[in-house]
Amino acid sequence: MGISAVIFDLDGTLLNTEQVTKDLLKEFLVGYGKVVDMEKENKRMGMIHHDAAIAIVKDYDLPITPQQYSQSIMPMYHQKWLKAKPLPGVNRLMKHLQNHGIPFALASNSVKKNVLVKVSSQKGWEEAFSVILGSDEVKSGKPSPDLFLEAASRMGVDASCCLVIEDSLVGIKAGKAAHMQVVAVPSIQTESDQYSIADYVIHSFLDFQPQLWGLPPFDDWVMKALPIDPIHFKGSYKNGFLEEVSDDDGASDIPGQAWGVYFGWVDCDSHERSKIVVSIRWDSNCGSFKRNIQACFINEYNEQICDQQIEVTLVGYIRGFQTQQNPLSDAQILDDDKSIAEVCLNSAAYSYNRCSPAKL
Question: Any idea where the Riboflavin kinase domain is (predicted)?
Answer without folding.
Answer: 258-322
